[in-house]
Every structure is written in structure tokens, then in C-alpha cells.
Specification:
By secondary structure, the protein is of the alpha/beta class. The chain contains 8 helices and 15 strands. It has 2 domains: 135 residues, Response regulator (Rossmann fold), CATH 3.40.50; 90 residues, LytTr DNA-binding domain (OB fold (Dihydrolipoamide Acetyltransferase, E2P)), CATH 2.40.50. The strands form 4 sheets. It has a 5-stranded parallel sheet with strand order 2-1-3-4-5, sandwiched between helices. It has a 5-stranded antiparallel sheet with strand order 10-9-8-12-11. Strands 13-14-15 form a 3-stranded antiparallel sheet, with no helix packed on it. The protein is elongated and about 70 Å long.
């Protein structure tokens, strides 16, 4: 018996972007592109008509964007969704917890296939509920702080829970994320990350350092009125004098 191929709908307002996905899947024995939509409204009509298993959906489209498409689909017609973004900050922040996966343009064939595999695993599950919750959170502004960081991992993107972050340091125009098992270089300024992280959990203790309060073991006086911040794994960081009040406020007591 011939195995039924998994149907894919490609949605993007840019023809070259649609063509790229179609090209990467040409001749595939498992996935087949059953339609291409040029905008959100056309995508909704095609989902109704074609009932695709998976939808590769661009986030930002005129008039009817990716959010609108998800909101418009009834639960029994909602396919597994892979979001596509040109690394828009808002999209990354929104989709890092609940999306099946998201692709950052330009992406490789290997990255697309990894996303499709994740989406295939989601087939048959009720993904609609989690997307509805996500849309509600973002639309209402309820998602105040990052729950995960999207960090590069080869050609893929790893979603790192902020609970796993020990501390963060500025490296030129990047931020180096330190966790127990690895370090990750993220293209972001420290100031931007500081605004996205929960200040009750993460505090900037130096112009080049943010620390997870849960990782602090003890504080010790250091040179010139600054303090040494010793983490549980033995890492020694510096608390500058001008950042001392911020740490005291987060700790709820004077140092």
C-alpha cells in the first residue's frame, strides 16, 4: 500500500519565498505542496478547501497577517503551523514558546525538514488551543517577559528556557548566554535583553553583565567600593557601584 504523503500549504506574500519552499520539497516522497497562498485571506480560503496537514506561514503580511490566519481557522481545520519570519523581534518573542517551529529567512533545506518533522509529530494533537492562547497573550500584552531565548545552534535554533540561564555578558554587538551545559552567542544588545527579561529574576550588575538572581551564592566586598558576585558554580562577577542599588532593590535588602 502506498503511503499517503503529508500535504503542505505555503503562505507568503513574497513569490521568491514561496518558490524557495516549493523548490526545497520538490520530489519529496513524504511531503507534497498542495497550494501556495499570496496573503492571509487566500490562505484561509485554501485551508478550508484543501485541508492541508501542515502550513508554512509567513508572520508579516499586509492586511491579514499570520496571527489573523490562525484566529480565523476553526479548531477542526487548523493544520500544524510552521511560522516564517525575517527575524522580527516581536515574532520571535511571541512564537518561541508555543509554535510548532519557526524558520528564520533565509533557511536551509535541512532546517526546513527539521521543522516539518516537528510539525508531523504534532499532527493529530490539538495545536489550535495553544495557538489561541498564544495569540490572546500577545494581543492583550500579557506576555511581558521572555520565557525562552531563541539561540543559534548550528543551522537550527535552540529554544533555551530562561531558567537555564546563569548569566549574560556583552561581547561587542552580541550577548553571550552562559548556562550550565553551554554558552550561546545571541545577536542582541545587553540593554535590549535587559528590557525583555523579568527584573525580579535578572539584574544588570555591570554595564557588561546580567545575572540570574537564583544563581548568586554570596557577595563579597571588592576593589574601589565594588562587590564580587560569586555564583553557585564558582563564577566570579563584578557588581559595579552604580548598579548596586538595582541589585539591592531586586534582593529587597541593603548589601
Amino acid at each position: 500500500m502506498t503511503k499517503q504523503r503529508i500535504s503542505v500549504l505555503v503562505v507568503d506574500d513574497e513569490a521568491p519565498a514561496r518558490a524557495n519552499v516549493v523548490s526545497l520539497l520538490e520530489g519529496d516522497s513524504e511531503f507534497v505542496v498542495v497550494g501556495e497562498a499570496r496573503d492571509g485571506k487566500e490562505a484561509i480560503d485554501m485551508v478550508h478547501a484543501l485541508r492541508p496537514d501542515i502550513m508554512v506561514l509567513d508572520v508579516q503580511m499586509p492586511e491579514c497577517d499570520g496571527f489573523d490566519v490562525i484566529e480565523a481557522l476553526p479548531a477542526n481545520e487548523s493544520p500544524a503551523v510552521i511560522f516564517v519570519t525575517a527575524f522580527d523581534d516581536f515574532a520571535v518573542r511571541a512564537f518561541e514558546t508555543n509554535a510548532v517551529d519557526y524558520l528564520v529567512k533565509p533557511f536551509s533545506e535541512a532546517r526546513l525538514r527539521a521543522a516539518l518533522e516537528r510539525a508531523r509529530e504534532r499532527l493529530g494533537q490539538d495545536a489550535k488551543a495553544s495557538f489561541d492562547a498564544l495569540v490572546h497573550q500577545v494581543r492583550s500584552g500579557a506576555t511581558d517577559y521572555l520565557l525562552r531565548l531563541a539561540v543559534p545552534d548550528g543551522e537550527a535554533t535552540r529554544l533555551l528556557d530562561v531558567d537555564q540561564v546563569d548569566w549574560i555578558e556583552a561581547v561587542d554587538y552580541y550577548a553571550r548566554i552562559h548556562s550550565a551545559d553551554a554558552t550561546h552567542l545571541l545577536k542582541s544588545s545587553l540593554t535590549r535583553l535587559e528590557s525583555q527579561l523579568d527584573p525580579s529574576r535578572f539584574v544588570r550588575i555591570h554595564r557588561s553583565t546580567i545575572v540570574n538572581l537564583d544563581r548568586i551564592d554570596r557577595l563579597a566586598p571588592w576593589r574601589g567600593g565594588s562587590y564580587a558576585v560569586l555564583l553557585q558554580d564558582g563564577t566570579r562577577l563584578t557588581l559595579s557601584r552604580r548598579r548596586r542599588s538595582a541589585l539591592e532593590a531586586a534582593l529587597g535588602q541593603a548589601i
